[in-house]
């Protein structure tokens, strides 16, 4: 075979890393939805089974998982709007980098409001 | 020794040639010999270079003075023929357009063949899949049976519409920088779409509907994920992703 093994990692810029993060978060959200549909479907089995399963989620590890889930969804949502604008707004491709930093900024602001309250609930032991 | 009247800089320890500083530079080159049966490997060469030298000049020095078996393509050596696209320090560039002094010569410069196309030998890849995609989008003027008696007139505004995409030199730097193309060799790739754009938006051309039909394929423009590696890699400065986006929008609106 004339194919040589891969060499170094391609050093792409913001566009490549934002695409990779979009893929990774998209995959993560997909698997969450899979589990979410399954556990929600348990309510059809019996409300007690549903409550029992949802009850097992109330621990710090799942709490951190929820924080990661929200982080992934917030990024995927804002970056999804950016990708849409790149495709449908005629000036989008010229401002894709600026739009990425806006996405990152919005992500930071959203997480700054969400994380203290959420982690307070998880670890606060109210 | 002095050969001109200009005052020599103090402590001119470095060798000079024509008043240009020389320095040592190490090139770490990805090599592959199909006849040896061995896998690809890295080899380092250290050569003397001038501040005005490009990566291509260093490759020439190696090939001409150190190791004649080093294989790479080049033709015009001035950024027009598109022969010497390669991956320099991890990014697709033309070796004839990158100055060594701009690359931090204190560290080895990595040079690899472009990704996603089968390597033939060292830095030479098989460009046939790339050109097959190019031929598929029919990169020639398609006109109807009514031939005008005079020339086909075009206003400056109509010409400006596709001006950017006329600059393509088919070096494959864009297509081989695309992560989608690496994993899916069937994807038409940025270069083919850029050259389709050049005719789709040409007011004299009548083949736009056919070309849009060809690119409205599973492996056509919809594979583009707006990663922008192509735009960053293009040695001609073509706004590749923007061109692809314009083709996408023309496909949705069916208005050229």
Outline the structure in words.
The complex is a heterodimer of chains A (126) and B (256). Chain A is mostly helical and 126 residues long. Chain A has one domain: Fumarate reductase/succinate dehydrogenase, transmembrane subunit (3 helical TM bundles of succinate and fumarate reductases, Up-down Bundle), CATH 1.20.1300. Helices cover 79% and strands 0% of the residues of chain A. Chain A has four helices and no strands. Residues 1-5 of chain A have low confidence and may be disordered. Chain B is α+β, with helices and mostly antiparallel strands and 256 residues long. In chain B, 27% of the residues lie in helices and 16% in strands. Chain B contains eight helices and eight strands; from the N terminus they run βββαβββββααααααα. Chain B has helices at residues 55-66, 128-136, 156-160, 179-183, 190-200, 208-215, 229-233, 240-253; strands spanning 16-17, 20-31, 41-50, 85-88, 91-94, 109-112, 119-121, 124-125. In chain B, the strands form two sheets. In chain B, strands 1, 2, 3, 4, 5 and 6 form a six-stranded mixed sheet that branches. A two-stranded antiparallel ribbon of chain B has the order 7-8. The model of chain B is unreliable at 1-14 (pLDDT under 50). The A-B interface holds A 2-16, 19, 83, 86-88, 90, 92-94, 96 and B 30, 32, 34, 39-40, 87, 89-91, 110, 112-113, 115, 118-120, 126, 177, 179, 225-229, 231-232, 239, 241-242, 245-246, 248-249.
Describe the structure in brief.
With about 130 residues, chain A is mainly α. Chain A contains 4 helices and no strands. Chain A has helices at about 15-45, 45-55, 60-90, 95-125.
Output the CATH homologous superfamily of chain A. Answer: Fumarate reductase/succinate dehydrogenase, transmembrane subunit
CATH topology of chain A: 3 helical TM bundles of succinate and fumarate reductases
First-last Cα distance of chain B? 67 Å
**Large-scale geometry of chain B:** elongated
Chain pair forming the biggest interface? A-B, 25 and 33 residues
The radius of gyration computed from the alpha-carbon positions of chain B, rounded to a whole number of angstroms, is: 22 Å
């Amino acid at each position: 075979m004339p194919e040589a093994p891969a060499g170094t990692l391609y050093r792409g810029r913001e566009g490549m890393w934002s695409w990779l993060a979009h893929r990774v978060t998209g995959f993560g959200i997909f698997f969450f939805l899979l589990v979410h549909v399954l556990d929600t479907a348990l309510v059809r089995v019996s409300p007690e089974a549903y409550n029992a399963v949802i009850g097992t989620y109330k621990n710090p590890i799942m709490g951190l998982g929820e924080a990661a889930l929200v982080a992934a969804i917030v990024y995927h949502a804002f970056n999804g709007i950016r990708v849409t604008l790149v495709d449908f707004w005629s000036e989008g491709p010229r401002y894709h980098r600026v739009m990425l930093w806006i996405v990152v900024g919005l992500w930071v602001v959203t997480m700054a409001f969400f994380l203290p309250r959420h982690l307070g609930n998880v670890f606060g032991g109210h | 020794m002095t050969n001109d009247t200009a005052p020599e800089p103090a402590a001119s320890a470095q060798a000079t040639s024509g008043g240009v500083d020389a320095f040592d530079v190490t090139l770490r080159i990805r090599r592959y010999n199909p006849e040896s049966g061995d896998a690809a490997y890295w080899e380092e060469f250290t050569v003397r270079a001038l501040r005005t030298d490009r990566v291509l000049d260093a490759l020439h020095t190696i090939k001409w003075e150190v190791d004649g078996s080093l294989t790479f393509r080049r033709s015009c050596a001035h950024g027009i023929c598109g022969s010497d696209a390669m991956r320099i320090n991890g990014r697709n560039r033309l070796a004839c357009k990158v100055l060594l002094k701009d690359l931090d010569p204190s560290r080895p410069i990595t040079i690899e063949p472009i990704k996603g196309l089968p390597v033939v030998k060292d830095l030479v890849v098989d460009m046939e899949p790339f050109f097959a995609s190019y031929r598929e989008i029919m990169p020639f003027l398609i006109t109807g049976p009514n031939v005008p008696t005079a020339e086909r007139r075009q206003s400056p505004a109509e010409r400006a519409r596709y001006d950017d995409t006329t600059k393509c030199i088919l070096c494959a730097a864009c297509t081989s920088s695309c992560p989608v193309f690496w994993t899916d060799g069937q994807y038409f790739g940025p270069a083919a779409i850029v050259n389709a754009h050049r005719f789709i938006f040409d007011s004299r051309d009548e083949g736009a509907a056919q070309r849009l039909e060809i690119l409205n394929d599973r492996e056509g423009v919809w594979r583009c994920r707006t990663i922008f590696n192509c735009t960053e890699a293009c040695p001609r400065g073509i706004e590749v992703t923007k061109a692809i986006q314009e083709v996408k929008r023309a496909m949705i609106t069916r208005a050229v």
